[in-house]
Amino acid sequence: xxxxxxxxxxxxxxxxxxxxxxxxxxxxxxxxxxxxxxxxxxxxxxxxxxxxxxxxxxxxxxxxxxxxxxxxxxxxxxxxxxxxxxxxxxxxxxxxxxxxxxxxxxxxxxxxxxxxxxxxxxxxxxxxxxxxxxxxxxxxxxxxxxxxxxxxxxxxxxxxxxxxxxxxxxxxxxxxxxxxxxxxxxxxxxxxxxxxxxxxxxxxxxxxxxxxxxxxxxxxxxxxxxxxxxxxxxxxxxxxxxxxxxxxxxxxxxxxxxxxxxxxxxxxxxxxxxxxxxxxxxxxxxxxxxxxxxxxxxxxxxxxxxxxxxxxxxxxxxxxxxxxxxxxxxxxxxxxxxxxx
Length: 341
Prior knowledge:
By secondary structure, the chain is mainly alpha-helical. The chain has helices at about 15-30, 45-65, 75-100, 120-135, 180-195, 200-220, 250-260, 300-315, 320-325, 330-340, and strands spanning about 105-110, 115, 145-150, 155-160, 165-170, 230-235, 275-280, 285-290. The chain folds into three domains: about 15-140, B family DNA polymerase, finger domain (Helix Hairpins, Orthogonal Bundle); about 160-220 and about 300-340; about 225-295, Topoisomerase I, Chain A, domain 4 (Orthogonal Bundle), CATH 1.10.132.60. Helix 1 packs antiparallel against helix 2 and helix 5 runs antiparallel to helix 6.
């Protein structure tokens, strides 16, 4: 019987799914995952092996979920339940074993643990225990200078010894985010990589707050070039193909086409074309960048974008974007009055 479930495992026959998924797992763990860390590889080779390893990981993770989906031909809910139970047991038992060995467990993330230890013997002991008691080969993934964990699920910050900052749950790097927001976000991330001591970290937290606040002030005071407020999205099909629901980037494309027709250009936008647009006050809510003025910008919407982007960074630091802005409700009165002009 599997602990925490009502299911049992057959030890006399191995099913085809088990063979297939197990083989892919062995290929990833024993071959492709270690390859990017080998010396003598070109950057292209290193990137190729990393991509293949991550692609195999996606397939492996999906193979668990798909077995719990009724539309899958090989749907079998007990397998999905058992997989979740086994994973849960492994994490729980590993945490307990680490604590017995006086290792501080800081955080758990699905299939990994963050521990606070500089003693390699302690780490080796935990790896040995897992192999002998669970049949699981733990691997030391990386060492970090420091880590900051949020109350939000799967949202944390770790900084490697070389200063590289990794943020779990990151959306600020997405290409469609306006350049102005991305630049401010990356400036804040770079600050995190500069901290080497606890005192440095406290200073960096203040600097990041200032970056967020100053960026928002620049937005309110119309000091951001309108080009840096533009969203850039690719058309997946021509504007004529949209009949009912019309996304905002398509609305902007239609406005641009209408303007171009009035000026003698009858060629419409097609699949693959890039439309640059900004969020504006008024009924349409968007305008193509070519037709927009800074006075058209809906600052409230851009503040919301900054809030959702910065909160994933500020959350682990113990702040929110609203905390940084201060008297938010009073400012909302001014935002609302601006929108009505």
